[in-house]
Fold SAM-dependent methyltransferase.
Amino acid sequence: MTDSDSGTDPPALAHPEAPITRINPHIPHPARIYDYLLGGKDHFASDRQAAEALIKVSPGTREGVRAHRAFLGRAVRYLAAEAGITQFLDIGTGIPTQDNTHTIAQEIVPKARVAYVDNDPIVLVHGRALLTGDPAGMTDMIEADLRQPEKILTDPTVRRVIDFTRPVAVILAGVLHFITDEEQPYELVEQLKAAVPAGSHLLLSHITLDFADQVSREEFTKPYDNSSAPMVPRTHDETLRFFAGWDLVDPGLVEVVTWRPDPAEYQEQIPGGHAWAYGGLAIKP
C-alpha cells in the first residue's frame, strides 16, 4: 500500500477481487479515518482531510486514538486471561492493524474463536489479514452493519464461529458514536445483549466531550458531517446506559486511559491530558 503521507490513494483497491463499486473514495468513512489516525495506509484523500480537520479541533486526537486502541487490547486480555472468555464477536472492527482481537485472545487461549463485523467494503478487502490466527481457534469476518443486528446474529459465518449457547464477548469498541439517536443505538445494543447467555461480556468504548469544555459539539463533529456516518459524542450517563442490566467490571465506566492501566505499557502523553473516550466492560448476570 502507499505511504499515508504520500497523498495518493491505496492501489490495492484496483485488485479485481475488491468490491470497488461499493467503495466511494470521495466520502470519508470512520474506519478509514481511524486507520489514518493510527498511522495506517488504507485511506483516501477525503479520509485524510476529515482526520486533519479533527486534529485541528483536538490536537491530541492521534494520541487519544492510540489510547483508545490500547484500552481494547487490555480489555481483550482481561477477557481471555481472567474472565475465561473464548468467543469474541467484534462489531465495527475497522481495517486490520496491529494487536487485533484475535491476535491478543489467541496468544492467551489458542482455541479462541473470533467473528469480525464491519460495514466498510475496504475492511473486507483486507480481511484475509485477519484469517491468520492460531489454527487451534477460528477467525472469520463478514460485511454487515451494526444497525441491523438480526442480520449479524443470523449470518451463517457468524453462527459457524460463535456458539451462542456459551458465553460470548460482544465488542463495540469505538463504533456506537457513529449511531445517531434516531437510529436507536440503545435498542440495537439490547438486541445483541439479549442474544447471548449469562456469563457473556459487553466491551464498549465511546467518544465523549465530557473532558472538553472548550470545544463545542458542533465544532468537534463537523469533520464527520460529510462522512458515511456522523459523529455523536455522548456523556458518561448516556454511555453508561448501554450497560443497563449487566454488572460492570471494576473500575466501571471510566476514561479509557484509566481502565486497568498496565504499568508495563507505554503511557503516551496526550495533548490536553484526556483521550476523550470512555471505556468499560460488563458481565451478563
The chain has a mean pLDDT of 82.
